[in-house]
Structure formats: C-alpha cells, structure tokens
Amino acid sequence: MSIKNIYSNLERSLEKTISESRTRSRGFVKADSTFDSASGLEELGKSFDFLKDVVVMESMQESVVNQNYGVKEIVRGKFGKHGKLMPTFGCHPDFSNMNEGELRNGYAITMFMDIIGSTKLGVIFTPDIVFRIKNDIIKCTIETVNSFDGHVHRIMGDAVMAFFRSDLNTQEGRIADSAVDAINCATYLIEMFKSVVIPKLNDLGVDENLGIRIGIDYGKSEHVVWGVYGYQESREVTATSFFVDVAAKLQQKAPKNCIMIGDSLAQLLGLDDNQLSIKTVTKLNETVPVKYITPNYRDAKGNLINYKQFVLKNEFYLKLLPTSIEEESFYIRASLKDDKDDVSDDEYYPCSRTIKKGRGISFKGYFHTNAIYSNPRFRFRVVNTGSEASGVLNNGNHETFQSATFSSSDRRYFAKNFEKTEYKGLHHMYVSFWDGEQRITEEQCFSVFIND
C-alpha cells in the first residue's frame, strides 16, 4: 500500500479546499502588482472582505471539524498495534496528576516537526484557505502521531511537538519501542508531505521550497525532569532536558524533507551508517560534513561536547516498513518464540517494535503458483548491521535453504526457518523461492529491530 493511498483522504481534502479557492472571484491573484502600490494594498484588503461573511465561515468549519483521515485504522493494522490510543493533545497522561513544585524523572523521546516555505501560501491564497491547508496538514500529523502511540504535546504555528513514551514501556523494559514508533512516525510524515502535500500545492504554483523538517532525540529517565511550568491557570506540565532541547535544534538544522536524530537515539536502537548519514553543507564550493550539533556547546569544564547528529536515510527506511511491502503471490510472515518447537501467535510485523536479544523468530515463506516444481525450496538469507554484529566474522551473516511443502488446495508452497536474536540493531531477512539451483522469485526483505 502506497503512502498516497494511506493519505488519500488528506489529498481529497486539500483538493476540495483548493477547488473552492479557485471558484471565488477575487483580485488577489494579481498579488505581485497588488503589493506595488497603495491602491494595490487597498485592493488586497478588499479581497479579504469575505471573512466577515458568517455563512462562508460556518461552511468552512463544517468541513474541518471532527474530520477523520482514516490513517489510524490503516497504520495500526499494518503494524499490529492494538489497545487504547494516547489522548490527542496537551499534558502527557503519565504526568497528568502532577502538583505545582513536584518534579519527576521519566524518559522522553521528543519529536519536533515544522513546515518550511509556507509563507507563500498567504500570497497565493486567502487567510481562510491558508488556515484550511495548514490545518489539514497539522490534523493529519496529529493522527499519524497517535497512530504510532505518540502524544502531541504542543502546536506552535506551523510546528508540532510530540512525545513518544509510556510508563508501561518502562515497566516492561521496552523503552526502545518508543524510539521505533518515533522514527516510523517521522518517516510517514516526510513521505506524506513529499507524495501528497507538495505535488498538490505545486500544481497551483506554490514555491517548490515547501517542505517539512523533523528532529528527534532520546533522553534517559535520569536526564529528563517533568514538572509544572507557570502557575495558577497559566501552567503546563512538560519535560526539561538537554535532549528535548536538542530535538528542537535537530529539527531546525535538518535539510528539507529530512529527519535528523541525535546520537542518544542512534545508540538506543543500535543504528549505523547503513541507516544513517552525516549532514553536509557547501562552503566555498566544497562539501563539508557537519558531524556535531551546532552550535557545539561547551560543558561545565569548558570542553566541547561534540554531540553527534545524523540524517536518517528515510527513503531507504520507508521501503522496509510493512505498508511498503506489496503482498501478492509471494510473501513473508514472522512470529516470536523462545524455542523452535514452541507454538506462538505473537506475530511480528517488519520494523514494528524491538525484539529482546536471546529470543527466537520463526520466518515463514509463502508462494502461491499454478506451477509445479521438482525441488521446491526457500532461501533464507540473513544480513546483520550495527556495531555488535560488526565484531563477529562476516557480521554473522549467513543463509539457509529449507525444503518447501506444497498444498494443492490453495496451490501454495511453504517453508519456515528459525533464527535466534543475538545482536542489537536493525537486521534483515531476505527470502526467495527456488527450484533446485534456479531462483524463481526476487528476494523480499523482512527487517527486524533487536535490542537489549
């Protein structure tokens, strides 16, 4: 399923808004000449007179209030997510009962998203249309954050701040799952903008520099303090941490339509240069790497902290996610178990959560065909990444052939292969169907996160 399909309701909503804007008779389309004279400014003011029309405003509100984009249903199903969603906005539910003056420690994975290049919207469209376009994007962002068990903490103009964390994950030792949710969410938001928002607005002459930037980082419990800012009715519960602030810095420094993450998050998931790259800038016609967050702060002793920053290879990573995998006649399933002979209904979806080291994964290959093969078998090929795997021979990479069984009732070949989880990081199982020494299908990749 493509990102365009997932966000098809957003595309339709934007199309409806833009179509309505085209039908209005207004002089604002002559924006360039309008700003050249005092009379032009007067005409500009007249073009906004419709905002006083209560009927128009009520019609606009009816089209945006309580709109559901259908993202949650698709995403949560594809990622095997169940249970109650986080409240949509405001104080994080884990800290909703805090009193003034109270402080608590608690890990935080913080994501900042900002729309860039949106100023021209106000030149091309009237204020209510600009509002509807931006609100469509913000509301779809909120729905995407919620889909991945995140919590939107604050909306700041064109920007959204969200936390990915839960006390339950802390209790169950699954803090890294929050990090997986955050990068999955960010990857979807980037692709939503590139595949749906930008093409739709570019058709109408909106500047090609329109885009979004995302920054994410992880602060351990001992490095994050939650408390009540303000007093009386003017107050909010929020997190204070270097790593929360760095997430905002990463967003500000991220290239257009890119995700930047801090070293703390990269270390938590065991990511390496297979998934990450170094940001570069051009100085005096020379490409220069920017390895550290800027400005490069000094600690209490005056030493540069040299805090590393990375650009996530989101186009590569998107292809690993379950919604990017087209299931036709050949597909892969996986379930978690401790022993090869155990029975398990704990299905694992690609890149959906972390798996503890020491557990096992049963990978199952399925191939539906009318053809009959004399020596049917599946090849299961393991490719490991990360620093732990790099310390062993050939990264621990290996391959295994498993003989396939055939079901005549549904014309299906089937085989399974059991693997133990050993190394922290993002690893890949490549599966293909063979007849003897001849490969019949292309390889499909099934990726898994393994953690401590």
From TrEMBL:
Record PROSITE patterns: GUANYLATE_CYCLASE_2
Residue ranges of every copy of the Guanylate cyclase domain listed in the record: 109-251
InterPro entries: A/G_cyclase (IPR001054), Adenylyl/Guanylyl_Cyclase_3/4 (IPR050697), AGS_C (IPR040511), Nucleotide_cyclase (IPR029787)
GO molecular function: adenylate cyclase activity
Pfam hit, one: Guanylate_cyc
One GO biological process term: cyclic nucleotide biosynthetic process
CDD domains named among the record's database cross-references: CHD (cd07302)
Name listed for the protein in its UniProt record: Adenylate/guanylate cyclase domain-containing protein
UniProt lineage: Bacteria, Pseudomonadati, Pseudomonadota, Gammaproteobacteria, Enterobacterales
